[in-house]
Amino acid sequence: MGLVRYLSHPQVLIDPAKPVERWSLNDTGRGRVQALAGSDALRGTGAVFSSAETKALETASPLAQALGLAVIVRPAMHENDRSATGFLPPAEFEAVADRFFAEPGTSVRGWETAMAAQRRICAELEACLALAPDGDVLIVGHGAVGTLLYCALAGLPISRRHDQPAGGGNWFAFRPGSPPPAPWAPMESLI
């Protein structure tokens, strides 16, 4: 197996009236995906896996199409379960997210614990790698669970200091059995 890239979806259209998992990419996010899809940066990718959330599928689909591949949807690859609170205003969300990472064994305001989300995303990674053909693998998902995956792969404790930069649309890569050699980077760095 080649290189495994984990890519978080970029900017979304925040709509408090919709469930968060049904949010779409905004114009900026779509433009960033189109720029990556129009490059040859992902050449050699043999499989594209995605969370079932709309924003992840809207990221994965154009990339897979440019590669001549179908998206393999993995519903359990979703973002950390925050359905207990639903939409939170940005400042309140950031405060709860800080606690989510700082207290990984605690269900903060009913959210899935960081430890449970980390176990889930690590199991999903293993399932994807077992299904993947030869070549590189692209996994399209979300920032929080991506950070939890990064921490697990890098042998680091769960901490928000390893979180992706604001705005989403970031990636890291690794080879199976080896830690990621570098932290999150903007998707434009692939081009």
Walkthrough of the structure:
There is one protein chain. The protein is α/β, with parallel strands linked by helices and 191 residues long. It has a single domain (4-12, 19-190), classed as Rossmann fold (3-Layer(aba) Sandwich), CATH 3.40.50.1240. Helices cover 36% and strands 14% of the residues. It is built from five helices and six strands. A six-stranded mixed β-sheet has the order 3-2-4-1-5-6, sandwiched between helices. Helix 2 links the parallel strand 2 and strand 3. The chain is globular and about 40 Å long. The mean pLDDT is 97.
Please report the distance between the alpha carbons of the first and last residues.
Answer: 22 Å
Rg estimate, integer Å: 16 Å
CATH-derived topology: Rossmann fold
* Total number of distinct structural domains: 1
**Strand residues, percent:** 5-15%
Element-by-element helix/strand order = EHEHEHHEHEE
Q: In what order do the strands lie side by side in the largest sheet?
A: 3-2-4-1-5-6
Shape: globular
Residue ranges: pLDDT <50 for 5 or more in a row? none
The CATH class label is Alpha Beta
What is the residue-mean pLDDT, rounded to a whole number? 97
Largest sheet: 6 strands, mixed
For the structure shown, list the relevant keywords.
5 helices, 191 residues, alpha/beta, 6 strands, globular, 36% helix, 14% strand, single chain, Rossmann fold
